Structure formats: structure tokens, C-alpha cells
Amino acid sequence: MQLPKFNNPDLLLQALTHRSAVNEKMGGWHNERLEYLGDAVLELVASEFVYQAYPYKQEGELTQMRTALVRTETLAEIAKELKIPGKLIISRGEKQAGGHLKASLLADTLEAVFGAYYLDQGLAKVREFIEAILLKRHKEIVEQGMKLDSKSKFQEVIQARGNPTPQYRIAKSEGPDHERIFTAEVLVAGKVMGRGAGPSKQEAEQAAARAALADLK
């Protein structure tokens, strides 16, 4: 597996540049805006894929499958297969702290690559890339992810009791950029059912779901 060829190499360079490197050099562009775009592109492509691949599944199940596909841990593993840790542009301090191997940072960087490739060559090409590195393994990833995914399990339990789909929100984030901690809340019909914290928004939401599941028992 390898990263795609870019018409504009500067876009790929930006996608691989962590905020810490920009702060260290006091200027330049980092990848957070591209990550924002890539996250949206990935959600669209993954949503369309599960919709087409599982024609008899309902909305709740499709959401669970998509969540399993775009888990932080899954994206981080793919980032490693693409050798992104060795290509990251990151501050010396962040690298010495092991940031270049942190799952949330690698997942964010891969999403930034998706965003950059979308700008460089359009939706059709980025869809081909995502299908090649991620979606072709959907059966294995979905099966494993559904076993580990607390958000999916909580949604399944809560909807079985006649409740609406759980909603998540980030209650706060604190700490320096390289050690950011997010706190998430899961709500059902406007009521907070659980809170959890983690080094990424996805991990914080999973922690909130685990807390909510524990309270249901």
C-alpha cells in the first residue's frame, strides 16, 4: 500500500504536517483544515458504500457499520500500512513523546490526506483510494469493529427500549495541542446518559458510550 500521486505535491506536504511542526518553526500551514475536509469526505464515501453494499440494512445498522469502518483505530492501522509515521512532519518534542505513533494523530493525518486528495483530484479519485485501502476489507473491519464499538452497542440497546438515536457532543477540550483531552457526553432525548474522556473526539465518544452502557446494567 502506498499514498497516491498528487498533481500538487504541496497539498500532500500540508496533509502530512502536524500543528506542532508549524508552532516549532513559527509559521506555515498545518493539516487541521484538510483533516476537517477529509473527515467529511470519508463520512460521505463510507455512508454511500454501506448503503450500496448492504441494501437490506436499516438506518441504525448502516450507521453502526459506517462507525466501525471509520474508527480511529482502524484508520491508524491503515496509516501505518501507508508508512505515514515515517512521513509525518512533526516537532522533535512531539516525536520524542511518541506522537507520531499515536492512533488519534495518525487517524487525523490520514483524514487530512483524504481532504488533500479530494482537492487535488476530486471525489471520484478519492473514492477509489478509500475503497482500495479501507472499504475492500469492509466485512472483516465491520465484524471486528461492531464487536468493539461501544457506540454501536449503546445505540442498539437504547433503541431496543424504544428510545431515539443517541446524540453526542463535545463538552470540553483541554490541554496543549499535542496532549489535548476531549470530554464527550452522550444524550438520549436530551438527557445526558454518560460522559467520557479521551485523546480524540472519537475516543471520548466511545468512552461516554461505555459509561452509559455501564449505568444501564
Describe this structure in words.
The protein is mostly helical and 217 residues long. It has 2 domains: 1-148, Ribonuclease iii, N-terminal Endonuclease Domain, Chain A (Orthogonal Bundle); 150-217, Double Stranded RNA Binding Domain (2-Layer Sandwich). The chain is built from 12 helices and 3 strands. Strands 1-2-3 form a 3-stranded antiparallel beta sheet, covered by helices on one side. Strand 2 (181-188) and strand 3 (191-198) form a beta hairpin. The longest helix is centred in the N-terminal third of the chain and has 22 residues, at 32-53. The chain is globular. The mean pLDDT is 86.
Helices and strands in order:
Layout: H1 9-15, H2 19-25, H3 32-53, H4 59-69, H5 72-81, H6 84-87, H7 92-96, H8 103-121, H9 123-133, H10 138-148, H11 150-160, E1 167-174, E2 181-188, E3 191-198, H12 201-216
Antiparallel strand pairs: 1-2, 2-3
Unreliable residue runs: none
CATH architecture of the largest domain: Orthogonal Bundle
Measured distance between first and last alpha carbons:
43 Å
Main beta-sheet annotation: 3 strands, antiparallel
Number of strands: 3
Q: Quick check: average pLDDT?
A: 86
Note the run of SSEs as H and E.
HHHHHHHHHHHEEEH
The best one-word shape is globular
Sheet with the most strands: spatial strand order = 1-2-3
Question: What is the helical fraction, as a range of percent?
Answer: 55-70%
Beta-strand percent range: 5-15%
What is the CATH third-level topology name of the largest domain?
Answer: Ribonuclease iii, N-terminal Endonuclease Domain, Chain A
Oligomer: single chain
**What's the alpha carbon Rg, rounded to whole Å?**
18 Å
Number of helices: 12
